[in-house]
Amino acid sequence: MTAARPHPERRRRHTLYFLEHAARQRPVHLDTEVDMTRVQRHRAEAGAAGNRYSVVAYLLHATGRVLDRHPEANAVLAPGWPGLRGPRTVRFTGVTAKLALDRPVDGERTVLSALLPGLESADLPAIQARIDRYRDIAAADLPEFRGVRMLGRLPVPLGRLAFAAALRSPRRRPGVLGTVAVSSLGHRPVDGFHASGGTAVTLNAGRVLDRPVVRDGRVEVAPLMRLGLTFDHRVIDGALAADVLADLKQALEGFEDGAGPDRPAGAAGTA
User: Fold this and answer.
1) Does residue 188 have a pLDDT over 80?
2) S-S: 255 plus which of 38, 121, 132, 218, CB 3.0-4.6 Å?
């Protein structure tokens, strides 16, 4: 006799609760094209030496350094107390990425979110090792997703209360939603997209594709990636969001092994 499988709706309850929370945001969308020539060159050289790095690993590496230089964007809007104190912005001292994953749960495709802390100082091999931990087909059974499994078992009213309780303290946010959200659909023919990950800044990476570019007045072919940035306008303004996106572009385009994107070549300091 075959055991009954959980209804697919139960496996998506954590997504429902998250979307209800994220609906409070005021998202604004920016995007740019990133020349991935240096990244792709480094990937090829590393691959020839037996080391495989994903494009997402480079993006996470750059994100940690850039947000560490822009603490205003590594923040969250904390609710106030009615009649006592209004909403306030809480800044975080470390960069924790919430990486969206497409993984099977009980045979059904489900979005899971992996947390990668300490990105402000993690090197590329360490970041890739963390990503690889979640590539296994049984990743949904890892201890860090115990809360997701619990939300799927609880009745909806209790699940909503449990999710809200986990987010009540802004200081606990990095361990629940991270301080920045990162999502990639570059494994499919998707050039660009925008999503809001419940954080002040969400990064959305499309595929890397050879396209014509103009360099020194001549048309050449280069691997370009569309990078989208969604920001919560309650937390930061467009000028700062544009600075973050520009610094990410410079970091990836100026990637150097060892030094990495801490300070892209020729980049000016950012206040």
Assistant:
1) yes
2) 38
